[in-house]
Amino acid sequence: MAKEYDLVILGGGTGGYVAAIRAAQLGIKTAVVEKGKLGGTCLHAGCIPSKALLRSAEVYAQTKESEKFGVFVNDVKLDFVKVQERKGKIVEQLHKGVQHLMKKGKIDVYEGTGRILGPSIFSPMPGTISVELNNGGENEMLVPKNVIIATGSRPRTLPGLDIDGEYVITSDEALQLEKLPASIIIVGGGVIGIEWASMLNDFGVEVTVLEYADRILPTEDRDVSKEVEKLLKQRGINIVTNAKVLPETLEKRNGVTIKAEHKGEQKAFTAEKMLVSVGRQANIEGIGLENTDIIVEKGFIQTNEFYQTKESHIYAIGDVIGGLQLAHVASHEGIVAVEHIAGQNPSPIDYTMISKCVYSRPEVASVGLTEEEAKEKGYKVKVGKFPFKAIGKALVFGEADGFVKIVADEETNDLLGVHMVGPHVTDMISEAGLARVLDATPWEVAHTIHPHPTLSEAMAEAALAVDGKAIHF
Ligand SMILES: Cc1cc2nc3c(=O)[nH]c(=O)nc-3n(C[C@H](O)[C@H](O)[C@H](O)COP(=O)(O)OP(=O)(O)OC[C@H]3O[C@@H](n4cnc5c(N)ncnc54)[C@H](O)[C@@H]3O)c2cc1C
After folding, report:
1. What is the CA radius of gyration of the chain?
2. FAD/NAD(P)-binding domain: which residues (predicted)?
């Protein structure tokens, strides 16, 4: 029997479940269809499990260096089974939390694979959702007034580089490793590749990163890429930029060997495993897009600024529409879409206000334009940069690498971008985000009196440095 809803959300990942909660708050009768687990990639194969492993790696690496703090620990050992157990517990706790939130919001959750149908006896418009239930029961037929597609993404690979799950893996398999390899080649030095490089190196794995671009973290400010590369190399990570991996040269025999073209020469790299982290592709297959007029370009669903597709009652949010594939972006897109459905006239998201983070050691965080982007856009820029080595709290922490860099407009004094490398910068970046949202000038940031000693003083000092007025450097 068909069931009627105001809204059905296809996919219960970060985008989908947050949209459902907002809809419930607005009194919209909502259902979520999820074929895997509520929480999606972020909770089960992304943000949370990777950060749990990164934290264990950091504790291990720091404990080995504890003598620097005058603390002597004998016989530091790593038990990777326990590391994985800890990760699993955190994920499970949060998973239960999301399930509870669905119940609290009286949101119906269908465990199964949803597919959009074309015009049918249920509705003259495309959008009825047929759900093939995971428990093998008879398909459910959901008839909603509106639909949000939030089916997310999955790892991409290079043509010819097949993921076998044993020698050649993606972050999906890496998160489930039962045993650490002795060595690994990471293809791709973007956010995911660099987080894994940093983590595995801290766990004692020999790491080689092969990056096609001329620098790692190519979407970050150039100074940031340079600093992270320098610091990771100091820790013994082999980073090769301008490296074009040649999938056809892959050999698998008790490990992997692959060649990459580097500076006009072919070089071979060998390791126990290879992790491919070259981006993520949208989950657009098998969801019935062919039954609609929805437009897909370069593999991503196209929408307007309120996330309406060509079918104005069908919205799409999160990784499936491309752009910044981040959890906080997916959830905010979900909120905007729901508020638009509710006729609340939400403001479109300004993507230049969104903070991006990398949870390597040291961490990286940024918001707004890089120096290069600002110049390309024709701004006359002034730059303030302040190193953590001149910040007391960073020295106390024993983590004084990195800096805060502020890019400002020389003519208007606008804060165009903030770029950070260093301890806990992923927690510090929100001050920069707020400053941009409130249109604060570097002067206003600097005149917010920052408590001493804190890492956040680096932000205030960098703001002073924009006009050559930094105090401690
Ligand atoms: C290793 C890794 C680390 C990451 N770390 C971070 C981080 O630190 N911070 C950050 O902001 N982002 C991070 N991300 C990115 C983040 O996970 C994604 O941006 C986010 O999960 C996108 O949310 P979403 O709701 O669009 O999609 P997803 O979370 O992928 O959810 C989509 C859901 O839809 C379901 N689904 C798909 N098709 C159907 C169907 N036909 N019927 C029913 N259900 C369906 C899937 O099972 C899935 O649960 C990371 C990603 C990875 C891979």
Report:
1. 24
2. 5-334
Helix intervals (H) in 240-288? none
Q: Which CATH superfamily does the domain covering 362-465 fall into?
A: FAD/NAD-linked reductase, C-terminal dimerisation domain (3.30.390.30)
Write the CATH number of the domain with boundaries 168-278: 3.50.50.60
Write the residue with the smallest CA distance to atom 8 of ligand 1: 47
pLDDT band at 261 (very low <50, low <70, confident <90, very high): very high
- pLDDT reading at 340 higher than 80: yes
H/E segment holding residue 429 = helix 425-437
Give the strand order in the sheet containing 273-276.
168-169, 273-276, 183-187, 206-210, 238-240
Q: From ligand 1's centre to the CA of 14, what distance in Å?
A: 7
| Per-residue pLDDT, 1 | 76
For ligand 1, say whether the CB of 292 is within 6 Å of any of its atoms. Answer: no
279 annotated as ligand-binding: yes
- Say how far apart CA 191 and CA 195 lie, in whole Å: 6
Does the annotation list 195 as a binding residue?
Answer: yes
pTM of the full structure: 0.97
